[in-house]
Every structure is written in structure tokens, then in C-alpha cells.
Amino acid sequence: MPRKRITQIFPWLLPLRIWQRRFCFYTRMRLDGNRYAVGKSETTLPYQLFETSCPLYNRETGFDMVYQGNKVFNLKLAAATLDKVIIGPNETFSFWKLVRYADRDIPYKDGLTVVDGKLTTTSGGGLCQMSNLLFWMFIHTPLTVVERHGHGIKDFPEPPSDAPMGVDATVSEGWLDLKVKNETEMSFQISITFDEDHIIGRLLTDQDNGQLYEVINGETLYYCKNNKVYEEVDVKQKTILTATGAYASEKLLYRNKCEIGYPLPEGTDIVEKGAKAK
């Protein structure tokens, strides 16, 4: 059995621990020497590098759909701090640097989130859908990923999207951030909009560098260990020359690993690495 944290033994200490983590989290950012992207431009940059969208509502969570509506409310608060942000040359994007005060005037609602490995509801729940979207956009660019954390467990099937498996980025204020650095001479602009059923993200640039990017899966493995089922999958980025459509390069971005917390489709090949799954 995992050892309990002190805040699990003495829950009244949790608010102090959260304050401490957030204080240290933002203090480190002030002192780390990075120039963080905070500026916005009402003028849209001229070149669209990538566009994507994903459904706002997931009906496979097992929770009341009211929490999906609350999530959408939270996403729109966060989007107001992210839309139109410019990431200039040598600037670093930080999710929490921008979203930190998204609920200053209007409080977040309770949405779904994972706490101590269990899916539950909490204020501001659901913001990971925004960080997932941003990460999917960022890996279609020459931006350098500085910090990204995958979800440790998938509690329910993902809604349909154009993203392959293993492309996600969980965030937790004071603990986990999403950061990318612009090491190019281009500027990038984030655009986040909504229609009735979807969130739509676009990345715009001030220059056409003659390249597009494709993200694909490589080797995928499902295996059982200690009565749990895990997924491991390679995530690769291909660079495409827009003038010819030819692939210029391919690289492995990372190998993603997570636990699967729901029944996989019948016939899925699962390799036994430990005790058999129940």
C-alpha cells in the first residue's frame, strides 16, 4: 500500500500545502531567467500554421452531464486569458503564467479532475482539455517543449479528435505546468474560439517558413502488470516541405505511458508482464 502523504493524514494542512506549492512555483518562474509570453495582439498574424478542434462534451465519464457544462464554463474563463497571446522569439509560454488569474472575477465551477488517483469533482476541473488542445497545437510547430506531463491514468475513453494516442498534457497549479520555448525567429499567436459543441484552436505565425508538421503514432503496446493494464505508444513528428509535400525529417518526440482505467475493446492484444488482470 502506498505511504500516505501528511496532508492525507492531517487534511487541515492541505490549504497551507497548496499555498506553499503555488508560492514556490511562481517564485521559481520569476527567478529562472526566462522571458514569459504575456502580450496579446488584436491584429491576427497572417499565416495559419495549424488548426484543430475537439468536442466540448464527453458523455462517457459516468458522471452527471452537469459537470461537462461546468467544464465548458471553466474552459471559456481560461480561454479569455490565452486567446490572441503572442509567443515572440526567445519567449517561453507557460500555461499557468497566463491562466493563473482566469477566475479572479468569476469563480470556476466544479468539474471533473483526478485527485489521489481517483476521478472526482473540484473547482476548476476540466482545464486539462485546454492544456491537451494547446499541446496538440504546439507539437505541430518548431516550438520546443520545455515541460509536459502525461496523464497517469485514462479513466474513460477519449472523445473523437484528430489527435493520435498518447497526446495529452495534464496541468495542476503549483505542481504541473505546460511550457514551450520559441527558439526561432518567428512569432506565434494562439487563437482559441468556441462553437456550440467544439473548442477550436489555431496557431498563427508572422512568417511562412515553408514547413508543416504531422504527428503520428509509432509502436503501440498494451500490457498487464500487477492486475493493471497499461498503454505505451510512441509519438513522432514529421516535417513536411510545403513546396513539394515531401517529408524532410522524422523524429521521436517521446514514448507515452499510462494506465487504462476502462475496458479496452474486445480483441485488443494485451501482453502479460505480471499478474493477470481481473
TrEMBL record:
Show the Pfam families listed in the entry. Answer: VanW
Chain segments annotated as transmembrane = none
Q: Output the InterPro entries linked to this UniProt entry.
A: Glycopeptide_resist_protein, Vancomycin_resist_VanW
Name of the protein in question = Vancomycin resistance protein VanW
State the organism named in the record.
Muricomes intestini
